[in-house]
Amino acid sequence: MGELIAIVSGKGGTGKTSLCAAIATALATSGEKILCIDCDIGLRNLDISLAMSDTCALSFLDVCGGGYDVTSATHHPQYPSLSFLTAPMNCAAENIDLSAFHDMLRIARAKYDRIFLDAPAGIDAGFQLCANFADRVILVTDASPASIRDAAQAGQVLERMGKAQVRIIVNRVSKKMLSAIRVTIDDVMDETGLPLLGIVPDDGSVTLAAAFGLPLFAYTDEGATAACRRIAKRIQGRTVPIPKKQI
Question: How far apart are CA 152 and CA 141, in angstroms?
Fold first, then answer.
């Protein structure tokens, strides 16, 4: 059975969606069959990070409603083992039929190696929708005080939900910025109370790739791309050290 992974953040602007796309792509290029589901209802952007904004895609409600099978999800034009369902635009997260959503995910587990749920930022209904069904939760934060505080709060909510497999990724890391604000990666781990899955450097290539309509992996092999490849290997259970230059 495939694994359900929710990608969440306590605060908007941490780069959660870009990381979701990049990690999913890394796993797809390693041979896994991956499904990405944009669950940010009303503010969907995962298609941009996947470089699929010009591609017609079903929403997950189309599948939940029984009109389509989950395998009708749109295949990525460059990475055939990566598929995508977008978020609906005219439905509040509170009104999603949880039973139908769960049934869709149950069927998806039998069809894909991993399913990524890109949650909206914050801890409201969309966060709950994704985290509730996830086997593993990846909490994305940057090193700013507001992001760390919100990540800590999200971590507490996940703990109350009984989620044990929760790890953090510290995104957009700049050693110069960390030094200026006197924050370390250990500080982020201590504040959130969560173990570290990975560190991703601040990398302008992420924005440039999206602006040019390219997948990050087709734009560069370095920086954030290399970091996401390492994170993908850790998700697969492989031991991959974090480069000292990132700490």
Answer: 10
Domain extents for the chain? Answer: 3-140+204-246
CA of residue 96 relative to chain centroid, distance: 20
- In this prediction, the residues of the chain whose per-residue pLDDT falls under 70 are 244-247
First to last CA, the chain: 35
Q: Is the pTM of this model over 0.85?
A: yes
Q: How would you class 18 by CB atoms within 10 Å of its CB: exposed for 0-12, middle for 13-18, buried for 19 or more? A: buried
Q: Who contacts 46 (Cβ-Cβ below 8 Å, separation ≥6)? A: 17, 20, 21, 36, 38, 40, 84, 86, 87, 118
Q: Does domain 3-140+204-246 have CATH number 3.40.1550.10?
A: no
Residue 45 has a pLDDT of 93
139 with 186: CB under 8 angstroms?
no
Question: pLDDT of 81-127, one tens digit each?
Answer: 999 999 998 888 888 999 999 999 999 999 999 999 999 999 999 99
Buried b (16+ CB within 10 A) or exposed e, 25-50: bbbbbeebbbbbbbbbbeebbbbbbb
- CA–CA distance from 180 to each of 147, 183, 198, 200, 213 (Å)? 16, 8, 21, 18, 34
The DSSP H or E segment spanning 172 is: strand 166-173
In this structure, what are the phi and psi dihedrals at residue 30, rounded to the nearest 5 degrees? -90, 0
Question: For the chain, how big is the Rg over CA atoms in Å?
Answer: 17
